[in-house]
Amino acid sequence: MIVDAEPGRPVRVMPRRLSSGRQLAHFTGTLDELRAMAPQFDGTFLKAVITGEEPDPLLGRTVAEIVPHAILVNAAPAREAHPGAVLDADPADEPELPDALRAYLAGRGMSGSAAEATVAAFAHLLTEIDDETPPPAPAEEMLQAALEHTWTEAS
Prior knowledge:
The protein has 6 helices and 5 strands, in the order E-E-E-H-E-H-E-H-H-H-H.
């Protein structure tokens, strides 16, 4: 539909037949399977979930090379669930938060100076919130002052 609207004038609605567009496609499989099926994804918006691969920060580029005539909506490695993995992990083995963020960004295809700048900003924010004691509320301060300066009635 094309809608022509201006203040002070009746609205005109004109139906038009869609003569172009791109299909939306979803692919889940290995890079080899994608290579075999690549022609069917030409001209599509493609969301690719790649299975059975080691983490690769350049996965999006690899998928784009395999399917050069598709527009990539997202190319991501499949994340396989491991029941109990979180419960069985030793908390001492957990990475520090900046390292975990760095690994996450690498998994999403972000590395180099952009990733390091993001991690540095995150680390700075972490140091800003080290003091976990909130400031007292105004009512709390008034109550504390009243308790400290009690008065007694003259006898």
